[in-house]
Design a protein that fits this description.
This protein has a 6-stranded mixed beta sheet with strand order 6-7-8-3-9-10, sandwiched between helices. Strands 13-12-11-14-20 form a 5-stranded antiparallel beta sheet. The protein has 9 helices and 20 strands. It is of the alpha+beta class and 357 residues long.
C-alpha cells in the first residue's frame, strides 16, 4: 500500500465567528484519487484551499511528506490547483499559458518547449500551441488548465469542481480523461465536488463532509453500499430511509413488519435507521411480499422504471426493469443482505424511548 503523503491534523477554520472546519483530521496516500464530497458550505473547498496554501488554519497542521507546510506559501508547495473557472490568460496563446509557471521558475526555452508538447499530448490537444483560449470549447479550456498545472510536475493536483461549468456530455468525457491522466501521471489527485456521480465514478477514496465534519471515509462501493449514517445514505444516491426497531440480531421491524437482515450487535428492541436502496426493492405478487402496497407513481427513466409504492403509510422509491402500472397492488420484498441498519443519533434514540414510554 502507498505511503501517507498528506496529513491534516486537527484543522479548525472559522470566518467571522462561523466555524467552517471543526477539528478535521484526514490523511491522503500517495497516488490516491481522493474526493471531498458534500453539499455547499460543508467545508470541502476550504479544506482544499488550506492544502493549497491559499488559506491558513486557525488551529492544526498540514504535513506534506513528513514536513510541516502549514505556513508555506502556495508557490513553495509541491501542489498545483485547477479551478472551476479555468483562469486562462486571454491575451496569451495556449503555449504561453502552459509555459507561464515554467518561465517564472527560469526554465530554459528548450525545456519549456518540450514540456508544452508533452502536456498537450497528454491532454489530447497536440498542435494547439498557437490557438487562443477564446477559440476553444469549455472542455478544451479545462484540459489546457490541467496541462498548465501538470507541466510543473507537482506531486499533488488539487481540483476544485473543475467540471462544474461543462455540459453533461463533456463532464462525462472529462471524468474519464481525469482517470486516464491520474493513471498515466502517477500523482495524487484531490478532487472537490458536490456531484455524487462524479465522486463514485472517479475516486479511489471518498470523504463525505457536512457542516465542517467528516461523515464517512471509504471506497465508492463502501460509501454507497454501507453508509454509516442517514446523511451519507441520503446524499449518496437515492435511498429509502425508514425508522425501524432492531428486534434482535438479524431481525428488524420496519413499519410494523419483520424483515430478516444480516446486521448484528444492535441489541434488543433498539430504535435504528434503516436504509434500502430503490434498486434493492423487489416488487412481487401481493401475497409473496413481506408487506403490501399500491403503485402511486410511474416514470420511465430509460434503463429502468422509477416507481413510488404506498405501503404501510410510507412512500417507497423503487427502481426496476419491470413495469407495474399505477394502481397495481404489489408485494414488497427485500433480501436480508440489502437491508442496511444504522444507529440513530443519541438525541433521536432518547426521543424514540420517550415515545415508547
Amino acid at each position: 500500500m502507498s505511503h501517507k503523503l498528506i496529513d491534516l491534523v486537527h484543522i479548525t477554520k472559522s470566518y467571522d465567528s462561523v466555524t467552517i472546519l471543526d477539528d478535521l483530521n484526514l490523511y491522503i496516500r500517495e497516488n490516491e484519487f481522493l474526493t471531498l464530497l458534500g453539499p455547499s458550505g460543508c467545508g470541502k473547498t476550504t479544506t482544499l484551499r488550506i492544502l493549497g496554501g491559499f488559506e491558513t488554519p486557525d488551529q492544526g497542521r498540514v504535513i506534506f511528506d513528513g514536513e510541516d507546510i502549514t505556513q508555506l506559501p502556495p508557490n513553495k508547495r509541491q501542489l498545483n490547483t485547477v479551478f472551476q473557472k479555468y483562469a486562462l490568460f486571454s491575451h496569451m496563446d495556449i503555449a504561453e499559458n502552459i509555459a507561464f509557471g515554467l518561465k517564472i521558475k527560469n526554465k530554459s526555452k528548450t525545456y519549456i518547449n518540450d514540456k508544452i508538447k508533452y502536456a498537450l499530448k497528454l491532454v489530447n490537444l497536440d498542435g494547439f500551441e498557437h490557438r487562443m483560449p477564446d477559440s476553444l470549447s469549455g472542455g478544451q479550456q479545462q484540459r489546457i488548465a490541467i496541462a498548465r498545472a501538470i507541466v510543473n510536475e507537482p506531486k499533488v493536483l488539487l481540483l476544485d469542481e473543475p467540471l462544474g461549468a461543462l455540459d453533461l456530455k463533456l463532464r462525462y468525457d472529462m471524468q474519464y480523461e481525469l482517470i486516464r491522466l491520474k493513471n498515466e501521471l502517477g500523482i495524487t489527485f484531490i478532487y472537490v465536488t458536490h456531484d455524487q456521480e462524479e465522486a463514485l465514478t472517479m475516486s479511489d477514496t471518498i470523504v463525505v463532509m457536512n457542516q465542517g465534519y467528516i461523515q464517512q471515509i471509504g471506497t465508492p462501493e463502501k460509501i454507497y453500499n454501507e453508509p454509516e449514517n442517514a446523511f451519507v445514505a441520503d446524499f449518496i444516491g437515492d435511498s429509502n430511509i425508514l425508522p425501524g426497531i432492531m428486534v434482535e440480531d438479524r431481525l428488524v421491524n420496519i413499519l410494523g413488519a419483520k424483515f430478516q437482515c444480516v446486521d448484528e450487535g444492535f441489541g434488543h428492541n433498539t430504535p435504528v435507521d434503516v436504509v434500502i436502496r430503490p434498486e434493492d426493492v423487489d416488487l412481487v405478487k401481493p401475497e409473496e411480499g413481506t408487506i403490501r402496497g399500491v403503485v402511486t407513481h410511474l416514470i420511465f427513466k430509460g434503463v429502468h422504471y422509477e416507481m413510488e409504492v404506498k405501503a404501510n403509510n410510507f412512500d417507497w422509491l423503487v427502481h426496476s426493469t419491470d413495469m407495474f402500472p399505477v394502481g397495481t397492488e404489489v408485494g414488497i420484498r427485500v433480501v436480508p443482505f440489502d437491508i442496511q441498519i444504522m444507529n440513530k443519533p443519541l438525541s433521536e434514540d432518547e426521543e424514540a424511548v420517550n415515545i415508547e414510554e
